[in-house]
Design brief:
The model is unreliable at 128-137 (pLDDT under 50). Helix content is 12%, strand content 28%. The protein has helices at 70-79, 124-129, and strands at residues 22-35, 41-50, 56-64, 101-106. It has 2 helices and 4 strands.
Length: 137
């Protein structure tokens, strides 16, 4: 296997940020159909989210397309403005989602992983900004 890269283009440490909790506006900039690690179909959805300072931040979501997750697909499509009251089969492709806007709510949840320095779960801010050890996540 050949691995090509230009070391002058490597970002040493990506800038980190944590969107503030609460409501935000988001726009879908990319949506593709993928297969989950368990072999299930899903949409991989990338958003631009307007932060409280007006800047746009990326956010990624995975929407499972399994029968058990149809409730979430319904909520997601309704939030995008699709009429979910029609009693008919609807057909969607991931590309149909690009450019659509929706409101989202950001909620921070503590990590289940323990901070080795404190022995306590990582707080969202600590987990977002910590230096990661390769293979740890």
């Amino acid at each position: 296997m050949t691995f090509d890269f230009n070391p002058t283009k490597v970002i040493e440490k990506a800038p980190s940020y944590l969107l503030k909790e609460g409501p935000h506006f988001a726009r879908i900039v990319s949506a593709i159909e993928e297969t989950s690690s368990k072999g299930n179909p899903m949409w991989l959805v990338d958003y631009e989210v307007e932060d409280s300072d007006g800047s746009l931040k990326p956010l990624r979501d995975w929407i499972s397309l399994t029968e058990k997750a149809q409730w979430r697909v319904k909520w997601f499509l309704a939030d995008l403005g699709y009429d979910m009251t029609k009693d008919e089969m609807m057909h969607f492709e991931a590309a149909d989602l690009v450019g659509r806007r929706l409101g989202i709510v950001i909620e921070h949840e503590p990590s289940l992983k323990l901070n080795p320095n404190t022995g306590k779960p990582w707080t969202p801010k600590e987990y977002q900004t910590r230096d990661r050890v390769p293979g740890e996540d």
